[in-house]
Design a protein that fits this description.
This protein is of the alpha/beta class. It has one domain: P-loop containing nucleotide triphosphate hydrolases (Rossmann fold, 3-Layer(aba) Sandwich), CATH 3.40.50. Helices cover about 30% and strands about 20% of the residues. The chain has helices at about 30-45, 95-110, 125, 130-140, 155-160, 170-180, and strands at about 20-25, 50-55, 65-70, 75-80, 115-120, 145-150, 165-170. It has a seven-stranded mixed β-sheet with strand order 4-3-2-5-6-1-7, with helices on both faces. A hairpin with a 5-residue loop joins β3 and β4 (about 75-80). The longest helix is centred in the middle third of the chain and has 14 residues, at about 95-110. It is globular.
């Protein structure tokens, strides 16, 4: 069970508010193009963003975890995976680098942010670490959040988010409707 959980009794967590969204995707099929379109759409609509955009740095099959996180406020890029050489198995997440990226984003939340964009509810988040405190802090500040959630982590996500979140596909039209609902304080998302 995650150490931090979104507060389902918070008035912002009512079904009408749905200020937290998960883009649910098939394991190992990260919806990068959908996140890039989401960022463009938000900027086109004048929304102030904080968070990260994930970029894959190597497409070789044995290196699928090599990614950098681009800070959406500053453009700073942080590599979050350790290079342990060819053939390394298991997750190579550099938790120190993730902590650094999270701290950078945390510092941006005070700047009139409309939406927090986060790349993935992964293994660290399933264990109560990683980005979970950042998401809870954003909700406490009234900032909407959206994060990618692989199907294998969906149960842990639901345990963390409870009734506070809505689940979306990676369809940009569906994501766009959710974004539009953020401008309507009591709108029910459909």
């Amino acid at each position: 069970m995650p150490a931090t959980q979104l507060a389902p009794n918070d008035p912002r967590s009512t079904p009408q508010a749905r200020r937290v969204a998960a883009i649910v995707y098939t394991d190992n099929a990260y919806p990068g193009p959908s996140f890039e379109a989401l960022v463009r759409l938000c900027r086109d609509r004048g929304l102030a963003l904080a968070g990260v955009l994930q970029h894959q740095t190597c497409a070789a099959p044995d290196r699928r975890c090599d990614v950098v996180l681009e800070d959406l406020t500053t453009g700073h890029r942080t590599a979050i995976f350790e290079d342990r050489g060819a053939g390394a198995s298991g997750c190579r997440l550099d938790e120190g680098a993730l902590t650094e990226a999270t701290a950078r984003v945390e510092g941006n939340l005070a700047d009139g942010v409309d939406l927090l964009v986060l790349n993935k509810f992964g293994k660290a988040e399933c264990g109560g670490g990683g980005l979970v405190d950042l998401m809870a802090n954003a909700l406490d500040r009234g900032i909407a959040s959206i994060i990618g959630v692989p199907r294998s982590n969906l149960n842990a996500w639901r345990e963390f988010a409870g009734d506070c979140a809505i689940e979306l596909s990676d369809d940009i039209d569906e994501i766009g409707r959710w974004i539009a609902s953020l401008r309507e304080p009591q709108a029910a998302w459909r």
